[in-house]
Amino acid sequence: MGSSNSSPPPPSLEYDRPWRSINWSEDGQKLLKTVTNFQPGNQEVNPLRILLHGPVGAGKSSFFNSVNSAFQGYITTRALANSSLNAEKTFTVQCKTYKVKNERAGSFLPFAFTDIAGMDKNFGIKTNDIIQLLNGHINDGYTFNPVKPITKEDPKYNNNPILKDKIHCLVAVLPANTVSMINEEMIWQMREVREKARDLGIPQAIVMTKVDEACPLVKKDLKKIYTSKKIKQKMEECSFKLGVPVSCIYPVKNYHEEHATNTTADILILDALKNILNFASDYVDDQVDS
Q: Most buried pick, 61, 121, 242, 272, via CB within 10 A?
C-alpha cells in the first residue's frame, strides 16, 4: 500500500461558538432608534465630543461617514476620505467637528465627531496638538502644521476652555489588516496620547476597521465577525499595543465601496457608537459631580 500524499486540512478560521454576543436577528431599526433617542446625562454638555485619532489611512473619516450613513439610510461622504490605495499622507488637514442630523426632529443628535489629521512620522498631526484637543484648546477650522504644534498666539487657540469644549471620549481607529505593521514610533505616540487622556480621566475605546480585509471568513459573511479567530486575534493585538481592554474594542466594516447601506454593517457601527456614547456621558457626569 502506498502512503497518502494528501495534505492535512487547513486549520479552522472560526470558533464553534461566538466569543462576543450580538443579536443579529434584532431589527437594525431598533438599535437605530435606541441611539437616536440617546440623551447625555447632563444636558448642559451637548453635544458629547468624540475625538477620532490614529494612523494615516486607518479609516477615521470613513468611520464618521459610516456612522452618518447608518443614520441617514444611504451612503454619505460628508467627511472627505482618501482611498486606502493612496494613503501615504494624511488627507484630512483641518480640525473639523461633524454632527449627525436627526431627520425626524429636524435637529442634530447630541454627539459630534472631531476628525483630525492622521498620525504619521513626517506629515501627520503632532502629538501635542492631540493633547491640546483633549483639553479643549483647539477650535474648529485649525489647520494642522506637520512641522510644529499650535501655539497660544494662534487665533484658533482657545485659552479658556470649559467642559463642553473638551473631548469626552478618545477613540483610536486602527486597521485590522495592517495593525501588525504599525511601527513602534507610531504606537509610542498613540500610547502617549492615551496616557494623557487617562490622566484627564477621559474614557477610551478602539474602533478596529477593515475587518473584511483581515479575514476571508468575514469578507464572505460579515456576521461571522464574532466567531472569527483572526478577528479576535487582531483585537487582542490592538489591546496589547495600546493597552485598551478588549471589551472596549469594536470591530467594524466602514462603508467605502458600497452603493447602499446594509443592516449587518449598520448593527456593528451603531453598537460601537452606543457604547462610546455611554462612556462619554458617564465621563461628563463624573466631571459635573466632582
A: 61
> Residues with Cβ < 8 Å from 177, sequence gap 6 or more?
210, 213, 214
* C-alpha cell belonging to residue 11: 486549520
- In sequence order, what E strands does 152-260 have? 169-175, 204-209, 249-251
Cα of 255 vs its chain's centroid, Å: 13
35, 277 contact by CB (below 8 A)? yes
Pair 84, 22: CB distance under 8 Å: no
* CA distance to 5, 96, 132, 165, per residue, from 161 (Å): 70, 17, 10, 6
Asked whether the beta carbons of 270 and 63 are under 8 A apart, the reply is no
| pLDDT tens column, 71-128 | 999 999 876 555 444 445 544 578 889 999 887 667 899 999 998 888 877 777 889 9
Peptide bond into 47 cis (omega under 30): yes
Residue 146 CB neighbour total at 10 angstroms:
16
For residue 248, what are the CA distances in angstroms to 18, 85, 100? 17, 28, 23
Task: Say whether pTM exceeds 0.70.
Answer: yes
Q: Under a CB-based contact definition with an 8 Å cutoff, are residues 251 and 212 in contact? A: no
H or E element that contains 147: none
CA gap 80, 172 in Å, rounded: 19
Contact call for residues 75 and 125 (beta carbons, < 8 A): no
Distance CA 247, CA 254 (A): 20
Task: Please say if the pLDDT value at position 192 is more than 50.
Answer: yes
